[in-house]
Design brief:
Elements: E1 3-5, E2 30-38, E3 41-48, E4 57-63, E5 69-78, E6 85-88, E7 96-100, E8 108-112, E9 118-122, E10 129-135, E11 139-146, E12 154-161, E13 172-174, E14 186-193, E15 196-202, E16 209-213, E17 222-226, H1 228-231, E18 238-245, E19 248-254, E20 270-273, E21 279-283, E22 287-289, E23 292-294, E24 311-320, E25 323-331, E26 344-346, E27 355-360, E28 367-368, E29 380-385, E30 389-396, E31 404-408
Antiparallel strand pairs: 1-26, 2-3, 2-30, 3-4, 4-5, 6-7, 7-8, 8-9, 10-11, 11-12, 12-13, 14-15, 15-16, 16-17, 18-19, 19-20, 20-21, 22-23, 24-25, 25-27, 27-28, 29-30, 30-31
């Protein structure tokens, strides 16, 4: 997790891009920011950082079941500022929606039609960068960031009903006062689950919070699913990965500090959220909470009993050989040690240490996979199950390829 002192805007390594808490957003020359299953393969969202000769670029690429590029779903977009692509797969319908920042201050929203030709238009009435897009078939939600002056970026959540999607989509800003966002409390994950919208808010002091917005209620407000790091406090400083597994929502956590700091880095947890909004532990520390006793279903302690595992950086689930499996990627912490926790804005780019990937058929028994990533691989950003195995999206140093590694699963 890249740690930036927002009073100066400087990290221990270099100045970070404002608000880029996505893994690898301020370091590697290339990064796969997301993978979405399409047929037997996937679509990869890839960004290439600026060089002395050219500005940042980004694009969407079709991959086959073993991660080989088969086509360009959307061409490389040259951007005036930090290249950031957000992609909502919309797997059961067209269009597939994507967004990127062209430096104009107004996000560009595109849609892929059946001929895979992108149609793009600047979105009126809103400004800033689209950090992520999620959808549930009825709605699209966008996490936005806006930079003003030298201060930290401010965040907002926009909601679009799919029935209103067209040439001039009407986005509605969701009231975020109940999320208590600040320079150190930022949204790190946004998703739909069982018809509701969920937002995970990092907090390096008190621990991350998970909120739920019941969209079917006439006057919906954000309500907490859990607070204070699921009552593990700063040891669960952020939700660093989120994915669906059937009717369940899976969340992976990350601590802000290294093991050398007194608060400790005692390993990440894997949490599960039911359709009714209740939560429990799959991997983690047994404890009492306001919701009752919580015991890990797998009987595994945080980090799968290894202190070297500092964060769950990606989660995926899908059928492999007729059996639905869940995969999690765990990485070590490689960033600077944090100072004053109240002055820090948590980013996820510095969890780029050694990677370990585990798989389970029932989330009770977990097996380590023998995965070999390229020597230049940095932070793992995404996982995707295909018809042949598992694709691992990560940072890379090459600027002429898609940084994705295939492993049989």
């Amino acid at each position: 997790m890249n740690v930036v002192d927002v009073s100066s805007g400087q990290s221990a390594r270099e100045r970070a891009e404002p608000g880029s808490f996505q893994a690898g957003a301020d370091s590697a020359p290339a990064a796969t920011q997301g993978l979405s299953a399409v047929g037997d393969g996937a679509i990869a969202t890839v960004v290439f950082r600026a060089t002395a000769k050219e500005g940042p670029r980004g694009g969407l690429f079709f991959l086959d079941a073993e991660g080989r590029t088969t086509d360009t779903a959307a061409p490389l977009f040259a951007t005036k500022s930090s290249a950031r692509l957000a992609f909502a797969p919309l797997p059961d319908r067209d269009p597939r929606i994507f967004a990127f920042d062209d430096g104009s201050g107004r996000p560009v929203i595109g849609a892929l039609d059946e001929a895979l030709a992108p149609a793009m238009a600047k979105v009126g009435g809103i400004s800033g960068s689209v950090v992520s897009l999620v959808e549930d078939g009825d709605h699209v939600a966008a996490l936005m960031e806006t930079v003003s002056g030298s201060g930290p970026p401010s965040q907002s959540v926009l909601l679009l009903h799919m029935d209103l999607y067209g040439e001039n989509p009407i986005w509605i800003e969701v009231e975020s006062r109940d999320l208590a966002l600040s320079r150190s409390r930022v949204i790190t994950a946004l998703t739909f689950h069982a018809g509701d919208l969920y937002a995970a808010v990092a907090d390096p002091v008190g621990g991350c919070d998970l909120f739920r917005l019941a969209l079917r209620e006439p006057k919906a407000v954000w309500k907490p699913v859990f607070k204070r790091g699921a009552y593990r406090f700063a040891l669960n400083a952020a939700v660093s990965a989120i994915a669906h597994d059937g009717d369940h929502l899976l969340l992976g956590t990350a601590a802000l500090a290294t093991g050398a700091v007194s608060v400790g880095n005692w390993g990440p947890e894997l949490l599960i959220v039911e359709p009714d909004g209740s939560w429990d532990l799959v991997i983690g520390q047994p404890r009492l909470s306001p919701d009752g006793l919580r015991l890990p279903a797998s009987a595994l302690m945080p980090g799968i009993d290894s202190s070297e595992n500092a964060a769950i950086s990606a989660i995926a689930s899908g059928p492999v050989g007729g059996v639905r499996r869940v995969f999690i990627a765990l990485q070590g912490y490689s960033g600077p040690e944090p100072g004053d926790r109240e002055r820090l804005r948590p980013l996820l780019g510095d969890y780029s240490g050694a990677t370990r990937i585990y798989a389970s058929d029932d989330m009770l028994e977990w097996t380590a996979l023998d995965v070999t990533l390229p020597a230049d691989a940095g932070a793992v950003t995404s996982l995707c199950v295909t018809g042949s195995g598992l694709l691992v999206g990560h940072e890379g140093t090459a600027r002429d390829g898609v940084p994705v590694t295939f492993t049989p699963a």
